[in-house]
Write the structure tokens for this entry.
Amino acid sequence: MAGSATNRRPEKDARKKEIIRSVRWRCHCTMILLTAALLSAGTGHAADTLEQLQQRFDHEHDGVRKAKQLRRLGRAEFDKEREAAKKGDFNTVGLEMEKYRDNVRGAFEALKQSHPDAEKHSSGYRELEIEVGEGIREVRDVILASPEQVRPPMQLVEDDLKKIDAELLRLLFPRRPGEQPLPPRAALDGNRPKPPEQTEQQT
């Protein structure tokens, strides 16, 4: 009896170790699958094409989300524009920068419609102003790198972006010093202290 009990103990220990190894293996496999799923979810948008980003942008009606989406869409447009510039395809360069300008306009108009008070609801306006600043620098680089004959359309794009940037800053900071109109001169004169009355000279 004692010998039989002794023989069963190693069998139980072996079975226990086998179960532990099986559980550990399953946990390991589960972690691998979860990690792969997370990585896939995190990089799914990174694989979006320019066309997919543009479609998502076009179908977005909320101004704040549209302005934030412009960040990734703009980077994709700049990438395409730079590749075209390397190949000397300045027709594509021009079309891409004009499309970028149109997208900036679209985001700005959506923002003004959904959140007209930029000073109180600045989300979206701040991101768009930063984005437009980068767009101005990008189109300036394009102008410097482009042949003389294709520069005029890009200069128009630059002017349009600068006007949008100026309006964004005005909406975000409406009470900046120097931005308020001066009061009429008559009002200024009325607020000035009157000179002391002269006393009659004694004779």
User: Anything to note?
Assistant: Helices lie at 2-43, 50-58, 63-86, 90-114, 125-145, 151-172, 185-191. Residues 48-172 form one domain. The radius of gyration is 34 Å. The longest helix spans residues 2-43.
